[in-house]
Design a protein that fits this description.
Chain lengths: 354, 272
């Protein structure tokens, strides 16, 4: 059997790194004679902590990835392109507003949203609406706003700032990215095994190989399809989740806290630092408020709001998941727009002295 | 014998392994190391889904597909499983955690508000005593606990209460004797006879753990190491603390230790 060569560079690099790490781990643990002070202290200091942070990030995110995979599959099977075309408002601006408020009925974590949005855009939702939807749902939703409220119960203005600015940023970014993309296809070509029998199943177009032997529309076969899709989706997204969690855990362990704290007061530097932190920590938007709050005394308000807005929109986990479906150029446009808009919003707060 | 599709088989094994792993976490209660109890329902959901997918996967093992190539991506899924198995973490501690941030000084109000649960009447009743503070009626007062306070052991809750009271009502607490359990944490910036008695505070999952605690001062006879679990007895007093980064001076509580002893790390070391 030969190994499959037709997949992403990112995955290749990740796998090499993993194999390397595995070798180190196995060496540490199996060679008892090496069980010196140094090694067990490294293990105590770093490895245990790393493993716990890494695993807990994954454990926390997997349920949501699964939910997203199922919702995406359900949309795939039950919602046709025609339905979507009918629902979308004709007016671009009304469309943006509607898309940005969907989070209220559809509270989905950022981990879950990527496959859903991919599915929607493939089904014909225009890019500017898809992006607005993707960015707004993890912020403008009751669960996240509630947890932000719990965290900042003495600084309720932060909750409002997060909600309002998150909402407007999502619409702004969606609008801009839509214009920049200009109707071009943002997806990369899915790479298939050349000799797979059923590659582009016409009603699916998701690039997975399946064999739909029967086209019966029974409930059971539909259920079967949903589960099939969800399983494949879990594989695709799960890979990226694990890589993202890995990187995030590494940065949490190895970036010294002192560096972070020393820039807390500068108007612009604090924002930059908090945005970098939000990007690197890749926290789920339900939990990030509690982390943000620990910085409250030492960092400017604008930077904290910047953290709360950027985190759900763009972070390591997210970007790696996007890289699975979207073209690099698109991801670049998308990320830069997000960073600039969030920075702008945060800066506004600092300048206004809130 | 039917031909076996290797890829589907591997995925099946991975799904089963994850199901087993999550089940073991709950069975050994190790799950507490990773997650806040409020998240448990979600983890149950993922366990259910893993099992469901495994069942549906069985049939696919026998689906013949044209390719014989193994998808390399499966290795990525093995990484968390292998790490969990090899390292088998028991406690979150060490430099990894300290880097995540300590809660005292500047942003202490943030931590207090977050974990605040009781109303003022309750506080007065409990802390009116001059001698040892004992939280006996904790069981009765469960109704006061809001969603952020549950899941704690008695000791953990006591720790939280004492911290809350010390930071919020320092004036009332000065002079009171307390008994508290936690682990030792020292930074270079601390004086030789100072350390924090702390616990890890988790709001959602281990990834967001924060170290929270009280500053302590002691006679300095023996050398206490980081991560050691001890029980201390002491009196509460106040002192000035200068934040390195904001140059602000604040008055914070400090415990003047009268007695201490080493203890075993508790089963449930976190505070939620």
């Amino acid at each position: 059997m030969n190994f499959d060569r037709g997949f992403d560079k990112i995955e290749k690099v990740a796998i090499l790194l993993l194999l390397f790490m595995l070798c180190i781990l196995i060496t540490f643990n199996s060679i008892r004679s090496l069980d010196t002070e140094m090694i067990s202290s490294i293990k105590k200091d770093y490895l245990e902590g790393f493993t716990i942070i890494f695993l807990s990030t994954i454990l926390e995110a997997i349920p949501f990835v699964m939910i997203g995979a199922f919702i995406s599959s359900i949309i795939q099977i039950f919602v046709s392109e025609e339905t979507i075309a009918k629902i979308i408002p004709k007016n671009r601006y009304i469309g943006l507003v509607v898309a940005s408020l969907m989070g209220i009925v559809f509270p989905v974590c950022e981990c879950a949203i990527v496959p859903i949005v991919r599915r929607l855009i493939k089904k014909g939702v225009p890019i500017h609406l898809g992006i607005t939807f993707m960015l707004a749902v993890p912020i403008v939703n009751p669960v996240v706003l509630a947890s932000t409220y719990y965290a900042f119960s003495n600084q309720i203005y932060i909750v409002f700032l997060r909600g309002f600015l998150g909402w407007t940023s999502a619409m702004l970014i969606g609008h801009v990215v839509g214009i920049l993309q200009d109707g071009k296809n943002p997806f990369k070509k899915q790479i298939h095994n050349k000799d797979s029998q059923d590659c582009h199943h016409s009603s699916c177009g998701c690039g997975h190989e399946h064999s739909h032997h029967d086209n019966k529309n029974t409930v059971f076969s539909k259920l079967n399809n949903i589960i099939d899709h969800a399983s494949l989706e879990l594989y695709d997204v799960g890979k990226l989740l694990i890589i993202g969690a890995f990187l995030s855990a590494i940065s949490q362990i190895f970036v010294p806290r002192e560096w972070i704290l020393s820039v807390g007061r500068g108007q612009a530097s604090s924002i930059v630092m908090m945005m970098i932190l939000a990007f690197v920590l890749s926290l789920c938007s339900e939990a990030d408020a509690f982390i943000a709050k620990t910085f409250l005394g030492q960092f400017t308000t604008g930077s904290i709001v910047g953290f709360l807005i950027l985190g759900p929109m763009l972070d390591i986990k997210n970007i790696i998941m996007l890289s699975g479906s979207f073209k690099p150029k698109f991801i670049l446009k998308h990320s830069i727009t997000i960073i600039l808009v969030c920075f702008m919003m945060a800066m506004m707060i600092n300048i206004m002295g809130i | 014998m039917k031909k076996i599709n290797i890829n589907e088989l591997i995925w099946f094994i991975i799904l089963i392994l994850f199901s087993l792993y999550i089940y073991t976490l709950f069975d050994t209660e190790r799950i507490n190391l990773y997650m806040h109890p409020k998240m448990f329902n979600y983890i149950y959901l993922s366990l259910f889904v893993f099992i469901l997918l495994s069942i549906f996967q069985i049939k696919k093992i026998f689906h013949h597909s044209g390719t014989k190539r193994i998808k390399l991506g499966y290795i990525i899924f093995l990484l968390p499983l292998l790490l969990a198995f090899i390292i088998n973490p028991k406690e979150l501690r060490g430099k990894a955690v300290y880097n995540k941030g300590i809660n005292m000084g500047g942003s202490q109000t943030s931590i207090i508000d977050e974990y605040e649960y009781s109303n003022d009447e309750y506080n007065e009743e409990e802390y009116g005593k001059e001698e040892y503070i004992e939280i006996e009626s904790l069981e009765e007062d469960k109704s006061n606990l809001d969603i952020l306070g549950y899941g704690n052991t008695l000791e953990g809750q006591k720790f939280l209460d004492i911290i809350n009271q010390s930071y919020m009502n320092l004036d009332e607490m000065i002079g009171k004797e307390i008994e508290i359990e936690g682990f030792v944490y020292r930074e270079e910036s601390f004086a030789k006879n100072e350390f924090l008695i702390s616990r890890l505070l988790i709001s959602c999952c281990a990834a967001d753990a924060q170290v929270g605690g009280l500053l302590c001062q002691y006679g300095g006879k023996s050398h206490l190491e980081n991560d050691e679990w001890i029980r201390i007895t002491g009196t509460i007093d106040s002192t000035n603390y200068k934040d390195q980064y904001s140059d602000e001076e604040q008055i914070i509580p400090v415990v003047k230790i009268t007695d201490w002893e080493k203890i075993e790390p508790p089963e449930s070391p976190y505070i939620y």
